[in-house]
Amino acid sequence: MARAPNYDQERKERDRQKAAKKAEKQAAKVAARERSKPETETDTETEE
User: CA-CA 20 to 30 A from 21: which of 4, 27, 30, 46?
Assistant: First the structure.
């Protein structure tokens, strides 16, 4: 006999996975931005 579907739990699991993936992408963007930014900032700080 097949199990009864638990739609609410399945929806929450999908939403949790989406949120984790989105947060991971956002963290990667922030890290990439910070990696490229300090190079220009350190150049201007040493000139002053």
Answer: 4
Rounded to a whole number of angstroms, the CA Rg of the chain reads 22
CA pair distance 47, 28, nearest whole angstrom: 30
What is the CA 20 to chain-centroid distance, rounded?
7
The gap from C-alpha 36 to its chain's centroid, in whole angstroms, comes to 18
Task: Give residue-wise pLDDT tens across range 17-26.
Answer: 999 999 999 9
Q: What type of residue is 46? A: T
DSSP character string of 1-48: -PPPP-HHHHHHHHHHHHHHHHHHHHHHHHHHHHHHHHHHHHHHHHH-
